[in-house]
Specification:
The protein is an alpha+beta fold. Helix content is 23%, strand content 29%. It contains 3 helices and 4 strands; from the N terminus they run E-H-E-E-H-H-E. The chain has a 4-stranded antiparallel β-sheet. The longest helix is centred in the first third of the chain and has 10 residues.
Length: 108
């Protein structure tokens, strides 16, 4: 059964575009993981400051395997700055992980 994992990231006003750029730079990093079914980065359009990272997985085990993988750690540690450069600032000021399963909806 497909499970949904949503990372709700509160992003200060001018950091949203940078968040989108960082996700674009990592596009495809999770695509070939066993059990991965899809991903969307949702940008708020109603004045909110919370962006949603929505992923779909075949099961909880597949998601947990991704969380504990070296690929996940590498993608979430941030790039090391080059000499004389400040470290990349965090994009979000808070983050929550929400978990769901599909309980109904329209046919595909």
């Amino acid at each position: 059964m497909t499970i949904i994992k949503i990372n709700a990231i509160t992003v200060p006003g001018d950091n949203g575009d940078e968040l989108a750029l960082r996700f674009a730079a990592r596009a495809g990093a999770v695509d070939n993981r066993p059990g991965f079914e899809g991903f969307e980065l949702l940008k708020p359009t109603d004045g909110r400051s919370t962006w949603l990272v929505v992923t779909r997985w075949a099961d909880e085990e597949s998601f947990q395997a991704w969380l504990t993988s070296p690929s996940f750690a590498q993608g979430h540690r941030g790039d090391a700055p080059t000499e004389g450069e400040a470290p990349a600032r965090p994009m979000g000021i808070s983050s929550e992980l929400w978990s769901y399963e599909i309980a109904g909806g329209s046919p595909a």
